Amino acid sequence: MLQGxxxxxxxxxxxxxxxxxxxGERLGDLLRRWAEAGGDRxxxxxxxxxxxxxxxxxxxDRVAAGLRRMGLAKGDRVVFQLPNxxxxxxxxxxxxxxxxxxxxxxxxxxxxxxxxLASHAEAVAYIASDTFGGxxxxxxxxxxxxxxxxxxxxxxxxxxxxxxxxxxxxxxxxHNSVVNLRRLLDEPIDPAEARAAADADPPDASxxxxxxxxxxxxxxxxxxxxxxxxxxxxxxxxxxxCGLNPSxxxxxxxxxxxxxxxxxxxxxxxxxxxxxxVMAPSPKPEDAMAVVEAEQVTIxxxxxxxVIRWLEANAGERFDLSSLEMLQVGGARLAPEVALxxxxxxxxxxxxxxxxxxxxxxxxxxxxxxxxxxxxQGRPLSPADEILIVGPDDQPVPDGEAGELLTRGPYTIRGYxxxxxxxxxxxxxxxxxxxxxxxxxxxxxxxxxxxxxxxxINRGGEKISAEEIENLLLAHPAVREVAAVAMPHPVLGEQTxxxxxxxPDPGGSGVSPDSNTLDLAALCAYLEERRVARFKWPExxxxxxxxxxxxxxxxxxxxxxxxxxxxxxxxx
Length: 572
Fold this sequence. Notes:
20 helices; alpha/beta; GMP Synthetase, Chain A, domain 3; Rossmann fold
């Protein structure tokens, strides 16, 4: 196990293997098996191209072989920021075969987040598209190389080659280099040679395969280490529960680096079932629904905010969505009144998915009655998922009563990467993960999400740490105190409202001492200067003389949440 990761206890791991949850499978080997069965059938496509199963397998080999020649090795960490492009799965599986560990960053992440990931993980490489959505990702790679001494290579899809690279990805002088990733993907190399190089030093099935990012509450995201065998089970069990088969056409509408479209069942689950993955460039209704119509998509996954936008776009009237059999909805609680509208408007089944990148997944089942599909967030994926719902004293509460959800199981981590102090609070002594979700459980074992115990803002499925935003704003010369809280939003679910107390003399801040005010535009410009992802910016600003506090002297965030909710309800 990689140093800095928390392994499963030996006896627990053995129990999962004996029960058949873990089968000693490496994710890169699974692609070989899928390719043998799929052959010349299309595995993944986008508006820019396609790959058959055989081509996907061979391209992954070329990526692994090329990266190995560049000096990357098993255990190396790689910040990975490709968007929804046809090359995404091939590069991921190339890294997995090599045993290098992708850290799945999201396209909206900027210098603030990428520098942290590269430094914290001591990453040796950064992989991204040269340009996406009008943004130049090469600038992020250049900034990260200055910030993180470990970062030697920047690989950009369709980007320029650094003159020091010698014009060939096989050059022995590729240190501190910028490489056109396309050259690795398309490099002419004997398939047997590429496979031999890819398989030269394979990882163990119990090794970490990649890192997902938490929506953590304590500053910047925590790194979530997922192993080959735990994620192989995650993928296979999810594909089974969702009924995927070779006729499945799965559209990746959400960013592919999210756990939901990656493996729940997502890209990997679709490939495991022999289906076809369609990479959509955008989840916006007009873009994504056109893809559904053109590609005869049968299943896709959205967050509730996007579902609402699809419904408002009169989906069924503007596009032929008759191929769509199931719409998965997760990332935030789906309101029952919205769930009821999906069938009549879009003409497909709904599946609620409640889970977390740390592990536990809950699904409503395909044969569940309407009241379960509409009114609950489903039940655990695995018979081995252990669920505790506890009160403030950590004692279990009766079914039907709300409490915090604790869990452990064969695909739920036992600790974050390099986060000992946080792990001591986030996990119990006997390995249960404290999810921070407040839930109730019905007599059928289905969970209903009531809210959050953790200080987290869920903006359309993107989890924002209030503490991270507060720390950033406290560095502004005009700000003395700050509290970031969730405010309700009819489409996104929640947005961020920043309550500020300003300094009496904000000299040098651009704020007038007479008016003692700071507007939202100036605050957001400040965050943009610090290269903070846009989705984290506050969307409302409230200035107070003092923040309210509880009896024990802590900021009373409940009072602030009630305040902003009342103001919005009153139209102010």
